[in-house]
Fold Carboxypeptidase.
Amino acid sequence: MELAPRNCRFPPPPLLLLLLLGLSTGAIVNWPTEEGKEVWDYVTVRKDAHMFWWLYYATNPCKNFSELPLVMWLQGGPGGSSTGFGNFEEIGPLDSDLKPRRTTWLQSASLLFVDNPVGTGFSYVDKDDAYAKDLATVASDMMVLLKTFFDCHKEFQTIPFYIFSESYGGKMAAGIALELHKAIQQGTIKCNFSGVALGDSWISPVDSVLSWGPYLYSVSLLDDQGLAEVSQVAEEVLDAVNKGLYKEATQLWGQAEVIIEQNTDGVNFYNILTKNAPMSPMKSSLEFTQSHLGHLYHRHVRHLNQDSLSQLMNGPIRKKLGIIPEDCSWGGQAKNVFLNMEGDFMKPVISIVDELLEAGVNVTVYNGQLDLIVDTMGQEAWVRKLKWTELPKFNQLKWKPLYSEAKSSETSAFVKRHENLAFYWILRAGHMVPSDQGDIALKMMRLVTQQE
Ligand SMILES: *[C@@H]1O[C@H](CO)[C@@H](O)[C@H](O)[C@H]1NC(C)=O
Ligand SMILES: *[C@@H]1O[C@H](CO)[C@@H](O)[C@H](O)[C@H]1NC(C)=O
Ligand SMILES: *[C@@H]1O[C@H](CO)[C@@H](O)[C@H](O)[C@H]1NC(C)=O
């Protein structure tokens, strides 16, 4: 591992960039004029493994960035790009049309997007054996990145640092948070780690699968026949997980999704009030798309790397960044990232959340009401399995309603908090909470980071 600090590199100033862009593309790209300070770079986290990060300093009219927290955002998949999807589709300053986002988290925090695991987004490996195959590698790679980042950006060492995540990113965030907590205690990383937030997170996959049937049945998306079919395959997934047959569990999980699709006329796994868009023509070979993993990859990673986002990232963004190697295309290795994690996919990490809670790390769980793939019932099921000694007290509490605006009477969320665990139920949101309900997502982030 390369833990020695390396030279810190900074991008050219925005005006020069604008000129470069105009000249090189021939197109007019209207970057907002009040662009805040941004920096980005690669860190070689292991031999042949290069991780890309992109930092935006908070832009708040009344506060210096040093008075606001630093939030790292981790996308799911595995293989979904934080610098692309999280940034342009969820919380960054610009949307994917490069128009300012009203609910950007940048008004209340500096934002660090990292394309993780290696091979995701603009991150890349030189050799096929360098992809991460398990959570331990994902976490140790991230420790190298964070050590380099905080060594190079001392101004962030004392600022409260939070990790926010989505989907599979939540599973990675849990593992990363625990390693970071240890590294800080050992003195190898200097940062003011203040909490981890797990959004619609893949903490206990089997608890999600087991709740799919009852959840869909309760909202008129399965009949008795369908419920029986879904419950049966869910039991098979449980059986495989209990026997430690994780690759088989991944395959059965895919089968469960197909059965749901057939019985619900194609419900969208990311928001039950909508339907799955028909699959767009794939670039990959037919053989791959017909394999069970190919099918899963297309369902769960493709939507994070849509064609329009890919054009943006591989077009104007790549030119703006200026440091992306020529043979590295954004999202080009995502498929391999996903395939290499096959054996890890269905493993639960409830025990890691327990370790975080016992260690005193602030843990927030937040979940969209309309998400199916990681439905709220499944989240509540694994929370009930925590061995954390304070859990009975957490369970005894009643939740409180939250409103995005002080004057509004429309309930946007419910929250329950005890000691270092908080749970947010986000209403009218699917899997991508900040994209679906930007106002309450921003408010939640401000609450979690103790700004409200
Ligand atoms: C913002 O904070 C940084 C770091 O503490 C400091 O160097 C800088 O001068 C501050 N800027 C303003 C405008 O106060
Ligand atoms: C971490 O941040 C909090 C809140 O700003 C501050 O009170 C505390 O001193 C910081 N701790 C360190 C070790 O920098
Ligand atoms: C955890 O959150 C509580 C408030 O909810 C806060 O008082 C405490 O300082 C936080 N702990 C850390 C380590 O940031």
In short: The longest helix spans residues 168-186. The mean pLDDT is 90.
